[in-house]
Q: What sequence folds into this?
């Protein structure tokens, strides 16, 4: 199927209609055409979801909707969230470009596979955003959007199957802590590991390695408990690495390795956890356990 770039083929959401048909097939068909046409490119990314105006006309329409709303005393961000949250303004939310930024860089356009999931994108517009806010996006990477889709901005399109939002403080509170340890003691160790994973070079959540890291960061709490345990034993987190598992014959399986080095002894202990990223949704293969390097 040839990619349609002409504006007259654009549906309400701003994507060329042929791209929408390719990227968002029916939910009961067992997968989209993108899955069958070529090897799928899955996304498991951590970033921030932000709306963009695709045109001057859309921006002016938003200004008129704002004028009809009671927004006295609100900040610009609170006004944006309040206006988009009104049911009568959902047509505006459908017109907007939804962008995932990672480390402040615009990385993907987001297209919900199910139109009902537009609500999740709206909810990601926080009235009082903080630097610790995180949005998780899981989906299928499609083609690069044409310039006319969003006021000249060209990014890869991600057909979103799941997204959810949280802040780092909430994540830290949700992680099961070791017994007799307070949240005030545990949180700094857990947050350091989470931030280290987020700041891995060029982690756009597109490669198998980065999808594995991001999955573990938000879904596997044992790595945080182990890091705290090692800090309490006067060791530093000296390395976070990943390598293809020897079991990767028919499936894409990776070993994530965490190295802790004693601050006084210089001795390094390594632990690994195995995760399968063959499909769109990664899963744990082997829990965190001590490892020995074989020479």
A:
């Amino acid at each position: 199927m040839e990619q349609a770039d002409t504006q007259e083929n654009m549906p309400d959401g701003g994507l060329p209609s042929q791209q929408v048909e390719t990227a968002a097939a029916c939910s009961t068909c067992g997968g989209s055409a993108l899955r069958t046409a070529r090897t799928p490119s899955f996304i498991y990314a951590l970033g921030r979801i932000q709306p963009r105006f695709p045109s001057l006309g859309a921006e002016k329409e938003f200004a008129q909707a704002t004028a009809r709303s009671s927004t006295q005393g609100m900040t610009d961000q609170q006004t944006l969230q309040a206006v988009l949250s009104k049911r009568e303004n959902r047509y505006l939310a459908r017109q907007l470009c939804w962008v995932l930024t990672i480390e402040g860089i615009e990385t993907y356009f987001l297209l919900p596979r199910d139109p009902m999931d537009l609500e999740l994108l709206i909810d990601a517009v926080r009235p009082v955003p903080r630097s610790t806010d995180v949005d998780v996006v899981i989906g299928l990477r499609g083609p690069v959007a044409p310039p006319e889709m969003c006021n000249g901005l060209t990014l890869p399109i991600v057909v979103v199957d799941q997204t959810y939002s949280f802040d780092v403080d909430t994540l830290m509170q949700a992680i099961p802590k070791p017994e007799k340890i307070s949240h005030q003691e545990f949180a700094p160790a857990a947050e350091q590991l989470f931030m280290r994973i987020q700041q891995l070079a060029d982690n756009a959540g597109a490669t198998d390695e980065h999808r594995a890291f991001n999955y573990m960061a938000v879904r596997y709490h044992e790595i945080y408990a182990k890091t705290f345990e090692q800090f309490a034993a006067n060791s530093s987190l000296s390395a976070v690495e990943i390598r293809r598992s020897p079991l990767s014959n028919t499936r894409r399986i990776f070993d994530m390795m965490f190295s802790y080095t004693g601050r006084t002894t210089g001795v390094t202990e390594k632990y690994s956890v195995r995760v399968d990223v063959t499909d769109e949704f990664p899963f744990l293969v082997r829990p965190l356990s001590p490892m020995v390097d074989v020479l």
